[in-house]
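Final report, Chapter 2: Outcomes

The project's central promise was a pipeline that accepts a single protein chain and returns its three-dimensional structure in a standardized token representation, suitable for archiving and comparison. That pipeline is now operational. To close this chapter, we reproduce one record exactly as it appears in the project archive, with the input sequence first and the structure output second.
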Amino acid sequence: MIDRVNGVVLEAVDAKYLLDALDVLLQGRRASPRLADFIDRLRRTAEKLSPAQENTHATVREIGGPHDSGHAGLYDLVDSSEAARILGCTPANVRDLARRGRLPRHRAGGRWLYPARSVAALAERRAATRG
């Protein structure tokens, strides 16, 4: 089950700025236990981030890593507009390609959806023939 997570996302630069601001505000004062705990957790998290990880959480793994099964890509679907953007044509042309059997499609809720892998494969074939 998916749980809702409430929180705030800060970039590493903003976290460091917030820590510096809190240090200035607390000069000559003692932080409450709750604030001291917050500052400590924020400082530990900010220190874990290297410049290469500033935009990524420390526990995120690389795409295509050893645990990436690739099964999710089998079920990715795009609508006519997105398929047209990928193929560099109009949505009407995408629907025509599907009618002629060049592109598989599925009807869902009154809309046509196309497997993303099939659309990408067709785009690659078209690019290869164009040179």
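Archive annotation: The first helix runs from residue 12 to 25.
This record, like all others produced under the grant, will remain available to the consortium after the project formally closes.
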